[in-house]
Amino acid sequence: MTAMPRAVVLGVGLAAVLLCAAPGQGQESEADKRATIKRIAGYAALIDRTEAEIRRKQWEYRVLLSFVLTVGILGAASAAAQKFEGTKARLCTLVMGVVISAVTFSTNALFPDDHRALKRNIDRARHERDVGKVVADSADLSVSTEALLQLEQQVQARYAAIVGALGPDPKRASLTPAIAWAAAPGTPESAECQRWASAGGLCFSGIGRSLYPEQARQNALQVTVDQASQYVARQAGGGRLPESFRDYVERFARVEEVYPSRELRSGREFAYVAILTLNPRFADPKALAASSTEPRTIAAGDPVLIRGWRPPAGPSSPSAASGEAWLRIDGQELRSDRGAEAASSWVFGKRGGTRGPLQNGDVVSLRGVWGDPYVTVEPDGRLVAFRGPAEATLFRLDKRGGSPADLIREGDAFALVDSRSGRVIHFDRGRVVTGPPADDASTRFASVLVPRLSSAGK
After folding, report:
1. I need a labelling partner for 239 at 20 to 30 A (CA). Which of 109, 248, 345, 379 fits?
2. Quick one: 42 and 126 in the same domain?
3. Is residue 5, in this structure, part of any structural domain at all?
4. Per-residue burial over 84-122, b = 16 or more CB atoms within 10 Å of its CB, e = otherwise
5. What DSSP element (H or E) covers 352?
6. DSSP letter, residue 84
7. Are residues 289 and 358 in the same domain?
8. How far apart are CA 91 and CA 109, in angstroms?
9. Looking at the domain assignment, is residue 4 inside a domain?
10. Alpha-carbon separation of residue 96 from 3, 84, 87, 120 (angstroms)
């Protein structure tokens, strides 16, 4: 008789656990879907705003076509007038020749493409706009999260195709190189960046250093993406953090070149220079104001870079990033005495290798990407990174600022708390150590995903 009640109790307990767990997973999936649909709606708004530019290009096509017809008609008339003799015939021929020369010069100076190429670009932009609207309208909560992410990529690809078809904005092409370069003056690769900016795009450059060539390359890309994201955030009006535009920049920017530099190399460290350009249309303030972008979530297993947290009201100039504390491995110790150009890549790991978004309260390990060293807290409070997973210290993520939800997103402030002792990691004059529980600028970290840009010349 006692076996039956025990089975009933166990069955009821198991059902309660399943019923309680299901809503949490469903709510998380629902929130991810709504966030994706919000981003799709933002890109759809950007696509809608290209209608005015398409109309302007249509007007340019009509003007260019009228110039071509004018040259053709006047050319035929001039040839016919040469058959006649007399002062009036010669005067008419001279006038028509002058008009033909003036119209031809205006056509070559004002219109980079001929009327046929311009018509093809307009038709392509209209087609991509129509398809993009259809794809964006098909987004619905009833489809899976994976399907929504695919729809988001399709909408972004359509928007990029529209901008590519419309070409550079002639009204701002001569001004934007100087504006973009003014955002990061004095770097050694300025001449290289100005060479790329001559094509009419926004140019950003950065240097990365590391004992590992691939890490130096990633750091160079990180510096350029950080500069571009901050510039785009300023263009958008400053209402959103630069981290909100990192994914935007990585999708629409072009990596012109990433190359090792012998002149900038010091000691055993490799030095890489990255050159990144962005079509000025992607930094249009009106279009950015209508967009809906937000920082990406950080998941266990994602390669990230970790730095000190930037307060929302703090300076957003790219030059400020060089003085920030970025976690790096120096020998066997963790240090924070250099900027983003010398940072190390990290991976947060959950127990059992479980993947998924990181949330407030998660207990994680911290592992360096190159060489797989796990971070361990020494008895004297120092943090070292050279031991294996069995000796790794587990840290609790304590979210302390940024986005309102529990998910950890790019740029969110969090503290790393030793799960055994309760001591908190903090910066101390270039070193990274543990100390008593506190909540100040030295204990707040933020993470960003390692840039996922394609190789040079994509």
Report:
1. 345
2. yes
3. no
4. eeeeeeeebbeebeeebeebeeebeeebeeebeebbebb
5. none
6. S
7. no
8. 27
9. no
10. 108, 15, 14, 31
pLDDT at site 448: 93
**Pair (273, 389) in one structural domain:** no
Q: Distance between CA 142 and CA 252 in Å, rounded?
A: 29
The SS3 assignment for 54 reads helix
The residue from 268, 294, 320 where one domain ends is: 294
Q: Write down the pLDDT at residue 349.
A: 92
- 159 with 177, same domain: the answer is no
Number of structural domains in the chain? 3
Identity of the residue numbered 80: A
Rounded CA-CA distance 220/258 in Å is 8
In the chain, DSSP finds a helix count (H) and a strand count (E) of 10, 17
Which one, of 391, 442, 441, 443, lies nearest residue 416 by Cα?
443
Report how far apart the first and last C-alpha atoms of the chain are (Å, whole number). 72
Residue type, 204: F
Q: Within this chain, do residues 321 and 407 fall inside the same structural domain, yes or no?
A: yes
Domain membership flag for residue 7: no
DSSP letter string, 369-420: SSS-PEEEE-TTSBEEEEE-GGGPPPEEEEEEESSSSSB-BTT-EEEEEETT
177 and 76 within one domain? no
CA distances from 135 to 34, 40, 41, 156, 159 (A): 16, 9, 11, 10, 11
For residue 175, what are the domain limits?
171-294
pLDDT score of 18: 42
Q: What is the pLDDT of residue 298?
A: 92
Q: What's the CATH number where 248 sits?
A: 3.10.28.20
Is 107:61 a contact under the CB 8 Å cutoff? no
**For the whole model, what pTM was predicted?**
0.66
Give the model's pLDDT for residue 320. Answer: 41
Question: Helices 87-110 and 3-81 meet at what angle, rounded to 10?
Answer: 160
- Kindly state whether residues 375 and 445 are assigned to the same domain: yes
Exposure letters 406-420 (e unless 16+ CB within 10 A, then b): ebbbbbbbbbbbbee
Last residue within a domain, chosen from 250, 272, 294: 294
- Tens digit of each residue's pLDDT (9 = 90 or more) over 169-208: 543 333 233 333 333 333 334 466 766 655 567 888 889 9
Residue 456 has pLDDT above 50, yes or no: no
The reply to whether 302 and 451 lie within a common domain is yes
